[in-house]
Design goal:
The protein is 33% helix and 23% strand. It has a single domain, classed as Ribokinase (UDP-N-acetylmuramoyl-L-alanine:D-glutamate ligase). The two termini are 28 Å apart. By secondary structure, it is of the alpha/beta class. The mean pLDDT is 93. The strands form 2 sheets. The protein has a 9-stranded mixed beta sheet with strand order 5-4-1-8-9-10-11-12-13, sandwiched between helices. Strands 3-2-6-7 form a 4-stranded mixed beta sheet. One of its GO terms (molecular function) is kinase activity. InterPro entries: Carboh/pur_kinase_PfkB_CS (IPR002173), PfkB_dom (IPR011611), Ribokinase-like (IPR029056).
Length: 303
């Protein structure tokens, strides 16, 4: 990594809180009421999960996002403070982003996002983005509205950029600026009729040379310099309890490999190991695999 960088990965956006509701099954059958286990609210949305995962792998990580002056914001601030992850926050008048996650017995989840907390005018201050990105080796951009205005700023700086498009269907225009402005693109294959076609369109139209489409227990698709390969799944070390944060963990594991000079196939293995581990962490916790455990599991997977 560049010796002049003070930050290995700057994470933009994606801070918030989730309220976890464990339900008997998904889809949840209609009923006037359901009796469920304890309902808990904890800090941790996509940017938080990615920052925690990167930090756990020993990368110097900094998180920049908008936060409200509210209880939810306090939870996010406490998460970063307790983990020792630097957080630069910008006031968000509408309040900290929040969501309700319905989690089934098999670990699948359905997220209900509160769209009232963000407005089209919300953005990260360009000068703050320039200052932090200018001393960062890499920037990972969350798929949230305040980050969209930062994409041209990052392009001007010439810093490498990654993003996660989550369950993009390959058509929704909201996702395209993020996809086309990134050097490395992660996404889920869940909503894609033809993952390879979407992945190749991203490389044809944008600057990315690497695209990774995760596909749950089936592994992932890995497109590097025009060559598509399948990434085999890695068996979770303990039973699967929740898939929340698995994609963020995969991205963090992949970035760890990329920033430490590993070959693409090795980066993908790191991502698969980290993602599998994340599926064993209960939804009410925000824990990630450490560097030692990741390297040991990767070595075991390659035999």
């Amino acid at each position: 990594m560049r010796s002049e960088s003070e930050i290995d990965v700057l994470v933009l956006g994606g801070a918030g809180v989730d309220t976890i509701v464990r339900v008997p099954e998904l889809p949840l059958p209609f009923a006037d009421s359901h009796l469920v286990p304890a309902i808990e609210t904890r800090a941790g949305q996509t940017g938080d999960f990615t920052a925690v995962a990167l930090h756990a792998l020993g990368l110097r990580t900094h998180h920049l996002d908008v936060l409200g002056d509210d209880h939810e914001g306090d939870l996010v601030r406490a998460l970063h403070r307790d983990r020792g992850i630097p957080l630069t926050e910008v006031p968000l008048p509408g309040g900290t982003r929040r969501a309700v996650n319905l989690v089934g017995p098999d670990g699948r989840r359905c997220s209900l996002y509160d769209g009232s907390r963000s407005q089209e005018v919300d953005e990260l201050p360009p000068d703050t983005v320039r200052a932090l990105a200018g001393v960062s080796h890499h920037v990972h951009v969350s798929l949230t509205r305040p980050c969209a205005a930062s994409l041209p700023v990052l392009s001007e700086l010439g810093v490498t950029v990654s993003t996660d498009l989550h369950d993009w269907d390959g058509v929704n225009p909201y996702h395209e600026p993020f996809a086309l402005a990134s050097d490395l693109v992660f996404l889920s294959a869940a909503a894609l009729a033809d993952p390879e076609r979407t992945m190749r369109r991203i490389t044809e139209r944008g600057r990315a040379r690497t695209v990774v489409a995760t596909d749950g227990a089936r592994g992932a698709y890995h497109l590097v310099d025009g060559e598509l390969r399948h990434v085999p799944p890695v068996a979770p070390p303990t039973p699967v309890v929740d898939s929340n944060g698995a994609g963020d963990a995969f991205a963090a594991g992949y970035l760890f490999g990329r920033l430490t000079g590993e070959e693409p196939h090795r980066c993908a293995l790191f991502g698969a190991v980290a993602g599998a581990y994340a599926c064993t962490v209960p939804a009410t916790r925000t824990d990630s695999i450490g560097r030692t455990e990741l390297l040991a599991a990767a070595a075991e997977s390659t035999g």
